């Protein structure tokens, strides 16, 4: 009877995607940090460890041009201002936020926060869409003191309108480390930290559908929600604080009204929150082990990002291997709170850690001629890889699928085998 029962168990099948193209962006040991799309999908911008941004066609992969000007690591890029869709913005550890005209690849404006500050992230928003917020670090850093800032400008005239200095500072001092401890922490978090200083990040995001609300998240393990209406200050406009408990690596919003918040940490844990009432909905402290246990073919070494398809409450956790393979893992943060078997697998394109994933098939407004292209990935091997999701000709036909689809609800997981 036991043998018959074992034969009836079916493992959910994963969709495997065909590699259409692989582009070597540079030579040597250069990294691809981030890939972002232009609103009309005529270009994708790619930030590199060479302190440059390159643009490519998302359909053909053709190189379009290069934006160069930063003197230090580029930490974020985005096409952010809807009224000027040709403008690409970038921020850097050189203390500047620069705007580039992607028609000429020339810098058209920049905001300088001062040589004593590094800018890790930025976001456009505000009730009148006139605010540019940035997460920054003061260069004043000792064993016992670290100063993280949230800066605000009116992007229309470049005038700074506020600087929040107190919301993260007290807790940050509690986790400030000696240089030996810094080195140990960087080694433990080596997959996403390009330099020692980058672990002292401060992330900012205006909330979709609530443009006057700003989220800041930091190495201190805190996520703060600010109201940016009127004059902005630490005392009056800090609405709530969520304590994650460990250094925060990435955050994002999802759900029908974007009321839910996901948080990835530098120790590869995942938590889900309702930011409106600061309620924790799920904690996956051993997310990497859970994902690895559900992937019978490989082991998850790190997480790249989370993917929200833009409707419903579905969420995927994107995990990778040191060899360059990727898996899309469904996150069940209700009820049993599990990380399921990968519903999509990408392999054969990268030879190292993947840093960025840009899906096209689930994005609204994608070009008609991109039909069949699932998306792009970039990594520490300096490669950009384009993945197909149909049976088009002229691709690596070892992995073919029709779409990224939900696994069958009747599928049951087979116990993972240990080959050692």
UniProtKB/TrEMBL annotation:
Q: What is the recorded name of this protein?
A: Transducin/WD40 repeat-like superfamily protein
Lineage top rank: taxon: Eukaryota
What does the UniProt keyword field contain? Repeat, WD repeat
- Name the Pfam families for this protein: WD40
Spell out the residue ranges that the record assigns to WD repeats: 67-110
Q: Which PANTHER family match?
A: WD REPEAT-CONTAINING PROTEIN 89
Q: Which InterPro entries match?
A: WD40_rpt, WDR89
């Amino acid at each position: 009877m036991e043998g018959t029962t074992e034969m009836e168990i079916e493992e959910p099948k994963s969709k495997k995607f065909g590699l259409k193209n692989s582009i070597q962006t540079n030579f040597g040991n250069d990294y691809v940090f981030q890939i972002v799309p232009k609103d009309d999908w005529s270009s994708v911008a790619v930030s590199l460890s060479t302190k440059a941004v390159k643009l490519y066609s998302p359909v053909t992969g053709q190189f379009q041009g290069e934006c160069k000007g930063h003197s230090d690591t580029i930490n974020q890029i985005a096409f952010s201002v809807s009224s000027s869709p040709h403008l690409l913005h970038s921020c850097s550890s050189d203390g500047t936020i620069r705007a580039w005209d992607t028609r000429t690849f020339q810098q058209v404006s920049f905001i300088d926060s001062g040589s004593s500050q590094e800018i890790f992230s930025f976001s456009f928003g505000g009730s009148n869409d006139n605010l540019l917020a940035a997460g920054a670090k003061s260069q004043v850093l000792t064993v016992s003191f670290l100063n993280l800032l949230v800066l605000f400008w009116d992007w229309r005239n470049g005038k700074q309108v506020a600087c929040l200095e107190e919301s993260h500072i007290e807790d940050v001092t509690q986790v400030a480390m000696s240089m030996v401890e810094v080195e140990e922490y960087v080694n433990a978090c080596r997959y996403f930290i390009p330099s020692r200083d980058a672990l002292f990040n401060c992330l900012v995001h205006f909330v979709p559908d609530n443009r006057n609300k700003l989220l800041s998240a930091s190495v201190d393990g805190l996520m703060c929600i600010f109201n940016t209406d009127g004059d902005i200050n630490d005392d009056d406009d800090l609405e709530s604080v969520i304590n994650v408990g460990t250094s925060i690596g990435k955050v994002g919003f999802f759900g029908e009204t974007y009321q839910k918040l996901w948080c990835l940490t530098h120790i590869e844990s995942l938590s889900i929150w309702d930011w409106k009432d600061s309620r924790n909905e799920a904690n996956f402290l051993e997310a990497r082990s859970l994902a690895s246990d559900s992937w019978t073919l490989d082991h998850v070494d790190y997480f790249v990002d989370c993917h929200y398809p833009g409707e419903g409450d579905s969420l995927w956790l994107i995990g990778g291997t040191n060899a360059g393979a990727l898996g899309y893992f469904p996150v069940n943060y209700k009820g049993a709170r599990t990380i399921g078997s990968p519903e999509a697998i990408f392999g054969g394109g990268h030879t190292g850690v993947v840093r960025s994933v840009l899906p096209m098939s689930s994005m609204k407004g994608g070009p008609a001629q991109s039909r069949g292209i699932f998306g792009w990935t970039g990594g520490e091997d300096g490669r950009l890889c384009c993945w197909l999701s149909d049976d088009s000709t002229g691709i690596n036909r070892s992995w073919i699928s029709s779409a990224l689809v939900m696994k069958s609800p009747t599928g049951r997981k087979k116990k993972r085998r240990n080959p050692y």
